[in-house]
C-alpha cells in the first residue's frame, strides 16, 4: 500500500502476531514486531523513558544534546531535526506529554531490507483489526528499533511527538523525530473522512480525494504507519481518486496564459491554522523571483478556474515553481483573494 503523501520516510520490519500464534510469510522471515504486551516490563520502561527524555530535550530546545544521542547517520545531517525542534519548542514548553505503549521492531539479516514491514498486534483473516498496526520502512539496515509515541497537549492544540529509536549496544539512540498535529481547526481525521464523503456525494471528487488523504494523515503519528482505519479509508478513497492529477512521477498539464504548465504534485498542507492546497510545477529557472512569483500567481488562478470546487475545501493555494536542480520558489494566495 502506498501512502499518497510521502514525508521523510523511514521503514521497519514485517511480523504478524496473532495472539499466541506467530505466522510469518517468506517475505517476513527475520522481521518481528513486539507490542507492549509482548515485551518485558524493563524493556518497555527503558523505551518509554528514552522517548520522554528526548521529548524533554526537544521541549527545552536542546538540539545539541539530541544530536549527541543520535545514530551516526542522523547526527551527520541533523538539520531537519533541528528545524523540527525549533519550530515546535515554543508549543512544547510546559506541555503535558503522555506516552502510548511502544513498539519494538527487530530486523535480522546482513543487508538493508528493501521494504521492511512490521505487522504488530492481532491480525484477523481479513487483515488488520482494531488493535493492530503496520509499519513499512524502506532500506532498513538490520538491527533493533523502537517506535515511541507521545500524545502532547498544548495551548495551541493536540499533537503527537514520535521518536524512532535504534539500539546501539546497551543504549537506545535517536533515529528519527516526527511532530504532527492531530487536529486542524479543531477537526480530527474522522471529521475529514466525513467531509470527504460529503464532497463525493456532491460530485466533488478532487476535494473528496484530498480530504481522504488528510483524514488518513491525521489518524497516524508517523507517515509509515498504517491501521485498520487508514487501510479502510485508503480502499474507500480509491473510488474518488481523480485521473487528472499528477501520479507516480507523471505530471499533469495545466494550460494557462498561452503555455502549458507541468504539475508534478498536489497535496493538502496545514499552514498556520489553515488547510491549504500545495501545487508544485516544473520551472526552467527560479532565480528571477519576480517572474517566478508572477508564474505562481498564474498557476494558482488557472488551477481554481479549472477546479472551482477547491474554493469549498481550502483556505488558500500555495504554488511552488521547482527547477531541475530542486531549488524552488513559492507563493501563497488566499482563496478569498483569487479572482
Explain how this protein is built.
The protein has helices spanning 41-59, 63-68, 72-75, 79-92, 189-201, 205-219, 228-237, 289-306; strands at residues 16-18, 21-23, 31-34, 96-99, 103-107, 113-120, 133-140, 143-154, 157-168, 171-181, 225-226, 252-256, 259-271, 274-282, 316-322, 328-334. With 339 residues, it is an alpha+beta fold. The strands form four sheets. Strands 3, 4, 5, 8, 9 and 10 form a six-stranded antiparallel beta sheet that branches. Helix 8 (289-306) links the parallel strand 14 (274-282) and strand 15. 36% of the residues are buried.
Shape annotation: globular
Low-confidence stretches: 1-28
Percent of residues in helices comes to 25-40%
Run of helices and strands? EEEHHHHEEEEEEEHHEHEEEHEE
Task: Give the terminus-to-terminus CA distance.
Answer: 39 Å
Structural class: alpha+beta
The biggest beta sheet is recorded as: 6 strands, antiparallel
Q: Quick check: average pLDDT? A: 90
Total number of beta strands: 16
Nearest-angstrom radius of gyration? 21 Å
Q: What portion of residues belong to β-strands? A: 25-35%
Number of helices: 8
Q: Would you kindly provide a brief summary of this structure?
A:
The chain is α+β, with helices and mostly antiparallel strands and 339 residues long. It has helices at 41-59, 63-68, 72-75, 79-92, 189-201, 205-219, 228-237, 289-306, and strands at 16-18, 21-23, 31-34, 96-99, 103-107, 113-120, 133-140, 143-154, 157-168, 171-181, 225-226, 252-256, 259-271, 274-282, 316-322, 328-334. The strands form four sheets. Strands 3, 4, 5, 8, 9 and 10 form a six-stranded antiparallel β-sheet that branches. Strands 12-13-14-15-16 form a five-stranded mixed β-sheet. Strands 6-7-11 form a three-stranded antiparallel β-sheet.
Amino acid at each position: 500500500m502506498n501512502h499518497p503523501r510521502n514525508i521523510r520516510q523511514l521503514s521497519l520490519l514485517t511480523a504478524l502476531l496473532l495472539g499466541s500464534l506467530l505466522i510469518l510469510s517468506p517475505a517476513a522471515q527475520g522481521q518481528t514486531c513486539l507490542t507492549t504486551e509482548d515485551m518485558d516490563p524493563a524493556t518497555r520502561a527503558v523505551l518509554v523513558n528514552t522517548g520522554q527524555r528526548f521529548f524533554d530535550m526537544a521541549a527545552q530546545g536542546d538540539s545539541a544534546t539530541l544530536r549527541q544521542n543520535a545514530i551516526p547517520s542522523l547526527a551527520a545531517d541533523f538539520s531537519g531535526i533541528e528545524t523540527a525542534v525549533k519550530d515546535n519548542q515554543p508549543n512544547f514548553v510546559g506541555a503535558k506529554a503522555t506516552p502510548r505503549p511502544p513498539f519494538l521492531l527487530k530486523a535480522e539479516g546482513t543487508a538493508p531490507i528493501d521494504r521492511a514491514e512490521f505487522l504488530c498486534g492481532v491480525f484477523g483473516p481479513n487483515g488488520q483489526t482494531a488493535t493492530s498496526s503496520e509499519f513499512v520502512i524502506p532500506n532498513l539496515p538490520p538491527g533493533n528499533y523502537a517506535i515511541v509515541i507521545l500524545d502532547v497537549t498544548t495551548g495551541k492544540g493536540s499533537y503527537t511527538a514520535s521518536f524512532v529509536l535504534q539500539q546501539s549496544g546497551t543504549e537506545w539512540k535517536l533515529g528519527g523525530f516526527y511532530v504532527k498535529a492531530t487536529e486542524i481547526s479543531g477537526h480530527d481525521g474522522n471529521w475529514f473522512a466525513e467531509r470527504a464523503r460529503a464532497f463525493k456525494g456532491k460530485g466533488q471528487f478532487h476535494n473528496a480525494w484530498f480530504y481522504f488523504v488528510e483524514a488518513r494523515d491525521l489518524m497516524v503519528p508517523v507517515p509509515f504507519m498504517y491501521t485498520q482505519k487508514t487501510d479502510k479509508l485508503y480502499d474507500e478513497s480509491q473510488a474518488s481518486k481523480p485521473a487528472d492529477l499528477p501520479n507516480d512521477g507523471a505530471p499533469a498539464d495545466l494550460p494557462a496564459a498561452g503555455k502549458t504548465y507541468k504539475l508534478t504534485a498536489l497535496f493538502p498542507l496545514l499552514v498556520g491554522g489553515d488547510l491549504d492546497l500545495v501545487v508544485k510545477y516544473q520551472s526552467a529557472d527560479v532565480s528571477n523571483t519576480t517572474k517566478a512569483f508572477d508564474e505562481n500567481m498564474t498557476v494558482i488562478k488557472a488551477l481554481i478556474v479549472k477546479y472551482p470546487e477547491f474554493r469549498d475545501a481550502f483556505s488558500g493555494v500555495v504554488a511552488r515553481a521547482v527547477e531541475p536542480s530542486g531549488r524552488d520558489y513559492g507563493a501563497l494566495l488566499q482563496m478569498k483573494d483569487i479572482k
